[in-house]
Amino acid sequence: MKFYIETFGCQMNEHDSEKMSHLLRINGFTPTKEVKDADLVIVNTCSIREKAEQKFYSLLGRFKKLKDKKGIILGVTGCIAQQEKEALKERLPFIDFALGPSGIHTVIDAVTSSRDGRFFYNFSENGCVAPLFLRPEPARGSIKAYVTIMKGCNNFCSYCIVPYVRGREASRESGDILEEIENLARKGIKEVILLGQNVNSYNKGRDDLSFPALLEEINEIHGIERIRFVTSHPKDLSDELIGCFGMLDKLCEQIHLPFQSGSDRILELMNRGYTVSEYMDKIDRLRSACSDIAITADCIVGFPGEDEQAFKETVELVKNVELDGIFSFAYSKRKNTAAANLDGEVPKDVALKRLQHLQGIQKAITLKKNQAAEGRVFDVLVEGRSKNSKDELTGRTRHNRIVNFRGDTDMIGKIVNVKVIRGYANSLKGEIA
Ligand code: 5AD
Ligand code: SF4
């Protein structure tokens, strides 16, 4: 039986798809890259914003046609499944199974049940940590791998659906994580990306390694050359963790640290637990611990109550802090979240205009930073052939910047010295130094 998985959303979801794919493969299913060849189609969904949901529903319309034509098994997993629960089956009666993020380990049962014509669902709420322990085999030739270290979120930012669909925080035992990474290193993995909705809350209140201590242990694993982690919350970014940058040689000089808004009033309404000056203080500390650190962030515009003044403050923050990149989004109302009940909704066209304005400012900052890299030589971990040009390879610097350059395919998987010859808005062009 051939299977195809379509994935929406964040790295957590991508990794969940890898976990399901692993379970399917060890149970005799074969992956296919062509949905038309598949007998089993799974859509792993995201509900962080309305747009992701709309994309899912329109894709499902297409997959229904496929089902009508050749009788595939069609399953929906991930955050929309968890959010809608049984209502999803009412809205999409043709689906065969539905699994929330904490139920993906039951994918084989789901398929077996579907084959027998019984609808299967698993909407395990908070308690279920089973998916944390799944260790997908890296695909042959992989250079980097995700490793889940914790799941869930206790922060309840007022706009965010994550605590409702991915449940409360739960950490995985350090011994289990280290063993998985040792195993990955033996299989040729050079870079690990530690995943968690809130990685710096790892093991909070538990009698096990702290997050910085875990990083120190991973730093000792032979064969691993690079360590990254996502995502961090500014309020939990400890000095101890900041101190790891520039101290642990394998920890890449890069952090993703969302600020979400540049207005204290909006941050309070968002329930973020810090002020703008506290955020800026963390940035200063990061930069003094590691002058060269690359920092990226997320930001929401058009949050309820965001007036021109509040938006201006966000613009000021973006201009002052000069981050390497910002992912900015127009606020999207999510049902059951606290912000859904707030007054002061910002009209869509206003939010989109603000978004464009902000993105323009950041684009210029990112471009300036990328151009400043011209003439410098970087360690680049070569990931494969470039998508845009057959003759070029692509890789990443420790700062997580993408570099395209001419080179031999036997460089793939190795760290090579590349001199940057041109900085663009989203990538760098280089040559072997
Ligand atoms: N509307 C818009 N953006 C959102 N994000 C999370 N929830 C929403 C929402 N309701 C953004 C935040 C978060 C990123 C993953 O998505 O910026 O950091
Ligand atoms: Fe989307 Fe959040 Fe779910 Fe990731 S955890 S897939 S970003 S809703």
Can you describe what's shown?
- With 433 residues, this protein is of the alpha/beta class.
- It has 4 domains: 2-122, Methylthiotransferase, N-terminal domain (Rossmann fold), CATH 3.40.50.12160; 138-252, Transcription Regulator spoIIAA (2-Layer Sandwich); 256-372, Transcription Regulator spoIIAA (2-Layer Sandwich); 377-432, Nucleic acid-binding proteins (OB fold (Dihydrolipoamide Acetyltransferase, E2P), Beta Barrel), CATH 2.40.50.
- It is built from 13 helices and 19 strands.
- The strands form 5 sheets. It has a 6-stranded parallel β-sheet with strand order 2-1-3-4-5-6, sandwiched between helices.
- Strand 18 and strand 19 (428-432) form a beta hairpin.
- The structure holds 5'-deoxyadenosine and iron/sulfur cluster.
- 5'-deoxyadenosine binds at residues 48-49, 159-160, 258, 260, 298, 300, 329, 331-332, 334.
